[in-house]
UniProtKB/TrEMBL annotation:
Bilayer-spanning residue ranges: 12-31, 43-64, 85-108, 120-139, 179-201, 248-269, 298-321, 336-359, 366-386, 392-411
Name by which UniProt lists this protein: Polysaccharide biosynthesis protein
Main subcellular location of this protein, as a coarse class: membrane
GO cellular component: plasma membrane
Cross-referenced InterPro entries: Poly_Biosynth_Transport (IPR050833)
Top-level taxon of origin: Bacteria
Membrane topology: Multi-pass membrane protein
Taxonomy of the source species: Bacteria, Bacillati, Actinomycetota, Actinomycetes, Micromonosporales
Subcellular location field: Cell membrane
Signal sequence residues: none
The organism of origin for this protein: Micromonospora profundi
Key words of the record: Cell membrane, Membrane, Transmembrane, Transmembrane helix
Amino acid sequence: MIRRILSLVPPGTLAVGAGLALLGLASYVHLAVAGHSLTKADYSSLSVLWSIVFTLGIGLFMPVEQEVARLVAGRHSQGLPPGPVLARGAALALGLLVAIVALIIAARGPLTDRFFAGDSRMVTVLIGSLAALAVAHTTRGVLSGLQLFPWYGTQLGVDGGLRIALVAVLGLTGVTSPVWFGAVLIVAPLVGVALTAPPVLRAIGGGVPVAWASFLRGLGLLIVSSLLSQVVVNIGVINVKVLDPSDVATAGALLSALVLVRIPLFVFASLQASLLPGLATTAATGDRAGFHSLLRRALGVVTALALAGGVVAVLLGPWLVQTLFDAPAVLGHGDFAWLSVATLAYLWAMVLGQGLLALDRHRAQAAAWAVGVAALVVATLAPVATTLRVELGYAIGSAVVAATMIVLLRARTSGVGSVPSPEVREAVTPGVTGGA
């Protein structure tokens, strides 16, 4: 029976899933120890740092990982070396990193005062954390494209395991500075990269350089969609500091709550490994019924996950965030209800987005996320309490994205049967994140 079950999952799912599970656990341990060790003001600063790092880091560098994986996989199937792809990917990641670091340095003063209570060291940690994610995602693209999933899972596992170990040391030694808790986001992923470097180093060099045109095809739209999706899911914590800088309790409490209600997102990351190739296959073969059936089944799975998690969050959420994260008692059952509804809508948007990608509709996916972010902004400006404003922004923004994608998918049912582009047909890895 076990062998039969294992035969049903895509190759590498278990290795990646195990690493992802440890990385997800590390997020909870990291924030739990920090919550019990830091003052409310310092935990608020760490919460904003966390949200910015994973919004920009995943938004910018996950598409690079996916494109590196796509091209490496294509070349590997033809017996060509991956070195030229790694060179282009590293150059692109470096360019994106330099651009975002330049913006951060230019805004260092306002960032320090508004988000980090005057502690400029947190801006330095922010830059270092983004650099670490740039390196990690680029190397993961090579490992994934070569189908070295045990190495890929090991990098995730080392990252997660080291985060747990480092924050445990910080907690046991009585460290009370958010800078050190933030620095874990630099050290852990870089050590994970170093320990899984052998196959990446063997990929360096060899072969004719890859044309930029083939590398950049569709990447701009992927980055737009990736960034906007991270804005929808992470901007609430940042908005608390923007809307009410004197509120040092709500930002930390909100991040702790989001960590709990977004557990289904980690499960979706594993589902995504097989969802996009499956949808792309049915689209390419003209199997319209199969395409819609797979899409409905995926929506059913994430709905069940979100409802199960939502019930627990609504009933026990206020007690759990206070017990696990030592969060201030500023969120009630109603707040967790809004966050759970928002997470359900966000999961729908993620699944429907895979449907659009399977039809090679990158532009439509990006447009849907743009409409959702606009709705989020409008909702956040509502004349209600700060906490409710950010909750409404997350919920309404996610719901608008999902609704827009449904309309776009229905408007192009005739698109099923078209041949997906190489970006879709050669997609080999899910979006894996170390964020909450």
